Amino acid sequence: MEKEAEANRIDKHHRRFIYLIEQLKMIPINSGNKQELMSFLYKLSYYAENSFQDEEIILNRHKCPNYANHRAEHKKFIQNMNQIQQLFIENSESILPDLLLLLDDWYENHILRLDNQEKHFYETA
Fold first, then answer.
1. Distance (Å) of CA 47 to CA 3, 15, 29, 102
2. What is the C-alpha to C-alpha distance for residues 72 and 109, in angstroms, rounded to an integer?
3. Where are the domains of the chain?
4. Whose CA is closest to 18, among 121, 111, 91, 88?
5. Of 10, 75, 77, 95, which residue has the fewest beta carbons closer than 10 angstroms?
6. What is the pLDDT along the chain (125 residues), one digit of tens a residue?
7. Residue 84 contacts by C-beta under 8 Å, 6 or more apart in sequence?
8. Which CATH class is domain 2-124?
């Protein structure tokens, strides 16, 4: 039952991430939405840090052999988010393409590829 609960928790994080991407795509690109974009960036950063921590605990508990690489990818994502936040402070209108590219890449290459490859460690361990 614990393994099923952990798998469900990680799946819930992934569904939330997809929801956040969809929310971002609905924010219009203009200089009048700076507060809305800043709020979104903080929400996304908070989500990422908490869900990554939860996922890392689960992967570490089940002795995933790729744990260090997985954790390094999480850290890189957070660093990229921090850079985008800094760019936003400097020029809010130009970050949306970079942010969408980062999120789409994360979904395709981390969630669909790496997370799915490692799912069996916490589903069957």
1. 22, 12, 23, 15
2. 14
3. 2-124
4. 111
5. 75
6. 476 778 788 889 989 989 988 888 887 766 567 788 888 888 899 999 999 999 999 899 888 898 999 999 999 999 999 988 888 888 766 777 888 889 999 999 988 888 888 777 666 64
7. 41, 95, 98, 99, 102
8. mainly alpha
